């Protein structure tokens, strides 16, 4: 278990470093994103969709505020097109992250955990709990990207990975986009309350999962 936690911690730290880099350099702020979307909306919804897709895809490489971007896609595009744009970006990020990690992740895994026995134990544990980890990964930032890379590194079957990824992403995105679509600058409460509720529900789901797994098998 320690080996798996070590892998998760190191990967999370790497993604967190990109977030801090973006934060302190001011390269990608919420104000900038809103400005891009406002300008794009004056041209065509296609440009807005493209920006949303690219930003959500970029989350694979640099930590971006996924929930905020998803809510904004609903605000600027409406529910239907907002969902389409957000799910496209998130799905592309998941698939590319999985494939890159599957191709190059084994060497990284060996570097992080040199001991083969511990490495095999970490792979086994992820295979046991990885589906649930991906399913509940949106409880906190960075965890979706980490779970995606772990799925590829540990050679999880693609069908299993994409099933968990979509089961996690679709309800999350649908709710967040809807909140954005019914929010306004004068009344941002639906978006704010939805963001809080999603986090609480996912954290509670993690708690329930942990409690169930703690129970001894009789």
UniProtKB/TrEMBL annotation:
It is found in: Cell membrane. Coiled coil: none annotated. It holds the Pfam family VTT_dom. InterPro entries: TMEM64, VTT_dom. It is a multi-pass membrane protein. The chain crosses the membrane at residues 6-25, 46-72, 78-100, 161-179, 191-209. It comes from the Bacteria. Belongs to the TVP38/TMEM64 family. Residues 64-181 form the VTT domain. Keywords: Cell membrane, Membrane, Transmembrane, Transmembrane helix. This is TVP38/TMEM64 family membrane protein. Its main location: membrane.
């Amino acid at each position: 278990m320690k080996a798996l936690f070590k892998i998760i911690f190191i990967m999370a730290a790497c993604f967190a470093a990109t977030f801090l880099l973006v934060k302190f350099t001011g390269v990608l702020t919420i104000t900038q994103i809103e400005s891009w979307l406002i300008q794009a909306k004056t041209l065509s919804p296609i440009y807005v969709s493209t920006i949303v897709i690219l930003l959500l895809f970029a989350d694979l490489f640099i930590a971006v505020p996924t929930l905020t971007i998803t809510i904004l896609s609903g605000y600027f595009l409406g529910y239907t097109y907002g969902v389409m744009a957000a799910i496209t970006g998130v799905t592309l990020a998941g698939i590319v992250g999985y494939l890159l990690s599957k191709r190059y992740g084994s060497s990284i895994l060996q570097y992080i955990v040199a001991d083969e026995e511990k490495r095999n134990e970490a792979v086994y544990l992820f295979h046991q709990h990885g589906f649930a980890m991906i399913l509940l990964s949106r409880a906190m930032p960075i965890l979706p990207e980490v779970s995606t890379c772990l799925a590829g590194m540990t050679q999880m079957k693609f069908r299993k990975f994409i099933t968990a990824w979509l089961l996690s992403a679709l309800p999350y995105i649908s709710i967040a986009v809807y909140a954005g679509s019914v929010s306004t600058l004068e009344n941002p409460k639906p978006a704010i309350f939805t963001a809080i509720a999603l986090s609480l529900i996912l954290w509670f789901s993690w708690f329930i999962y942990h409690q169930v797994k703690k129970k001894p098998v009789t």
